[in-house]
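Hey, I'm writing a tutorial for new members on how sequence and structure tokens pair up, and I'd like a real worked example in the thread rather than a made-up one. If someone can provide the structure for the chain below, I'll link this post from the tutorial.
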Amino acid sequence: MFVKQGEVLSGSVPSVGAKMYAEELLTQLRQMYGNSAAEENTPEYWQPDETASRLMMFFDCVNIESDNKMSLLERSFTSAFNDTEKLFGGRGRLPLESYETKQLILESYFNGTRK
């Protein structure tokens, strides 16, 4: 999601491979969220609150049978964010909205209030 968020909000595409991978995942996620490809190409769709909400809904749907589910999700989320940041050129290269989305998720989802 961060690849697409970065693409729409910054206007830059990190690589053809990243774009293709993001599009494949988004195609699958459209069924879950009920949105359209056209909606995904608007800045409004990728604002921090809305993006964080979709990610948290996705996390809730992930079935991990482990006492460490939250830890595994948080590590996966952080790793995916860092990988996306590298695709866009390193720290601080994603749109501000991506960093705000990350902060919302860390505070709202991984602060221990969800199980």
